[in-house]
Amino acid sequence: MRPANEALLVIDVQNDFCPGGALAVSEGHQVVPYINEMMLDFRHIVLTQDWHPKRHSSFASSHSGKGEFELTQMPYGPQVLWPDHCIQGSEGAAFHEKLDTDRANVIIRKGSNPEIDSYSGFFENDHKTPTGLDGYLKTRGIDTVTIVGLATDYCVRFTATDARTLGLSVAVDLAGCRGIGLGDSLGEAYDEMRKSGVTLIEG
């Protein structure tokens, strides 16, 4: 069992990010048994859940003349326009049915603000508005996190780099992650995480 100062962060293992979902990550469902096994080794387990209202500003359908996966500018910076996904209360927003959610100590929902997307488990995409995860970890004396989930090149990446910015020791276990792969988004994610001091566990 890991020490009490360590937590496992499980990022967005939801139906819409698994095969058949609205924003499916290739082989996304394959992380579930691996993550369930990892959970047995941690006292503290946090799940994050993408939780968008309908007509969220990050949806391509909310922008006339724009297509899915196009890049646009928001007041907070560049934003990929996604297919409608993880809409509050929908089956797509639910966790994968085989994920052992009963072991979670807390669930952090993100992306609820219709005007700002939220990749990171710690901050919305303005990099200022907190989700409350940092406070939760600090009050429990947690200074070390291992991160797994979906998708490596977006929500895992931003959660990991924000965790480092907040002073946490961070490892990303790549066997428990899968990526979207828009252009070189995976390579860029690996580079950025390494540069920020994130340990990437491979194999």
From TrEMBL:
Top enzyme class, one word, equals hydrolase
> What is its pathway?
Cofactor biosynthesis; nicotinate biosynthesis; nicotinate from nicotinamide: step 1/1
One MF term in GO for this entry? metal ion binding
Its gene is: pncA
The organism of origin for this protein: Halocynthiibacter halioticoli
Q: Which UniProt keywords apply?
A: Hydrolase, Metal-binding, Pyridine nucleotide biosynthesis
For this entry, the protein name equals Nicotinamidase
Q: Gene3D superfamilies recorded for this chain?
A: Isochorismatase-like
Give the GO terms filed under biological process for this record. Answer: pyridine nucleotide biosynthetic process
**Family the entry assigns:** Belongs to the isochorismatase family.
Q: Does the keyword Metal-binding apply?
A: yes
Q: What is its EC number?
A: 3.5.1.19
InterPro entries in the cross-refs: Isochorismatase-like_dom, Isochorismatase-like_sf, Isochorismatase_Nicotinamidase
* Domain Isochorismatase-like, chain residue ranges per copy: 7-200
